[in-house]
Amino acid sequence: MQSRGGAAPVITAQGVDLTFQTADGPVHALKGVDLTINQGDFVSFIGPSGCGKTTFLRTIAALETPTGGTLSVNGMTADAARRARAYGYVFQAPGLYPWRTIAGNISLPLEIMGFSKADRAERIARVLELVDLGGFGGKYPWQLSGGMQQRASIARALAFDADILLMDEPFGALDEIVRDHLNEALLELWARTGKTIGFVTHSIPEAVFLSTRIVVMSPRPGRITDIIDSPLPRERPLEIRDTPEFLAIAHRVREGLRAGHAYD
Ligand SMILES: Nc1ncnc2c1ncn2[C@@H]1O[C@H](COP(=O)(O)OP(=O)(O)OP(=O)(O)O)[C@@H](O)[C@H]1O
């Protein structure tokens, strides 16, 4: 098995297939996906558009149902894990309600889940600190920069303290400097909380900088073509991106992407 260092498997996919039936015929979004994600792993999914990255993340979150294979999340079916609120999900766009303050946005899922007012206040304060937005709870989304809004959406996903965080290209729309800053902040948050993270990205440096494992995918059908266990230490300053070790992993990812790319 792929279990390493004694860490428990949290997400296990075996032969996962997902075929969408469309008016133009079947689309094989995922084909024979085998993957084990262990407790505390930071796993990035990288690959060209249409290789099934988002579909796989959505399948883990039970937002899509596989048409074949088995998938287990925290020892349950993905659907049971969703009902047990096993994960927080961060979408590509922050998706904050403009008529609610930042604290009000973070509060919303907690209200739906029935947390008491005092418990909500305590959780909101804690997650705002975690994403470095202490003091911004009373602001409205439009009063914050894009990077701050995305941090607020991460805080919302963290507020009910699930062990798993699923993030679908959360920093894709941000400029490089902001992205660098958020990458560092995310690593810090991951180190502090010990969460298991699944992260979709198009960026090779981002995948290599953040991950303990990099999953390279290829389209038509969407499948895994390489899984790279990173030899980099967990504590990573941005300068690590200039080291030969970093560049060697980036090279392997690039080669994997090139091999699976159809250029059409
Ligand atoms: N609900 C759906 N119905 C039909 N086809 C779908 C649906 N969702 C995704 N697909 C198709 O499945 C394939 C995989 O899509 P997916 O969004 O997972 O790719 P991706 O790797 O995340 O791409 P991107 O990087 O562009 O976000 C694509 O061909 C897409 O068109």
UniProtKB/TrEMBL annotation:
Residues 13-240 form the ABC transporter domain. It comes from the Bacteria. Gene3D superfamilies: P-loop containing nucleotide triphosphate hydrolases. This is NitT/TauT family transport system ATP-binding protein. Keywords: ATP-binding, Nucleotide-binding, Transport. GO terms for molecular function: ATP binding; ATP hydrolysis activity. InterPro entries: AAA+_ATPase, ABC_transporter-like_ATP-bd, ABC_transporter-like_CS, ABC_transporter_ATP-bind, P-loop_NTPase. Belongs to the ABC transporter superfamily. SMART domains: AAA (SM00382). Pfam families: ABC_tran. It comes from Paracoccus lutimaris.
